[in-house]
Amino acid sequence: MTDANPHTLLRPQIALPFALVALIWGSTWYVITGQIGEVPASWSIAWRFALATPAMFLVAVIMRKSLAIGRAGHLLAMFIGLTQFCLNFNFVYRAELHLTSGVVAVMFGLLMVPNALFGRAILGQPVTLRFLLGSLVAIAGISMLLLHEARVSPLGGNVGIGILLAIGGILAASIANVVQANETGQKLSMPPLLAWSMLYGTVIDFALAWITAGPPVIPMRWEYWAGVAWLGLAGSVVTFPLYYTIVRQIGAGRAAYNSIAVIIVAMLISTFVEGYQWSWLSASGGVLAICGMVLALRARRAPPPPLEPMSEP
Questions:
Q1: Which of the residues in the chain have pLDDT under 50?
Q2: Do 18 and 9 touch, CB atoms closer than 8 A?
Q3: Alpha-carbon distances of 277 from 71, 249, 272, 302, rounded to whole Å
């Protein structure tokens, strides 16, 4: 579908789900911080997708999508499960041990860059000069945010480790995004592919958690499980059908602007709830990063992120 009329986003049937997706995904970055204290990050991820996986299968059934995806589809789902629902999330959760949630969210706004580069290398998709220029502007802005983070260092001084972990998550998510857009992925309906991918990812998550963190850790606080439910159901199940409905109605290009709204929500939450400390450096960097992302997204001939929703935490 091509991009819709510029005023389409103002229609209630588009604006309301667009805003809901941005609010939910924007909040998930902060909710993760409550999942990585008393419980090892690996087990929090395992519990999250143990809840999300059956719910995603239920969504596929409700949408009357066949769960049969064939041998090639299962191999693709296994790969997505490993890269997206295991590696990506394990990197993200650990990154938030060292960086404030809003900054990690802003870094993930750059997912469009490796998506485009991997898309060109693997799928032969073109990349425009305007897209590259916008990406460079965004990278400059994010660098300013990270420099401010290193100076303030509110979470123990391991900002460098947090940056490396976040980059690992971005690369893992990007590989999953691009690979799912191959010939096999394009033939499959998204709900069943996501459901099977989550299932395989959950199995890997449980194995990784047991190997790295020992036997299951089951906290008793209701706040922890409320966070798991929000991340697993709202953040991983409710939003995907809403987002893809938006994509079908206004096109992937305009729908990709949701990532900008997510970043704004995440930074607002980080400011008012997490106590993020702004400075002229970080404020300038934040504005520059968002402007760069908008410039890159407005490069009409540049390919939109193949599966940008899968970048969300």
A1: 1-4, 301-309
A2: yes
A3: 50, 39, 10, 35
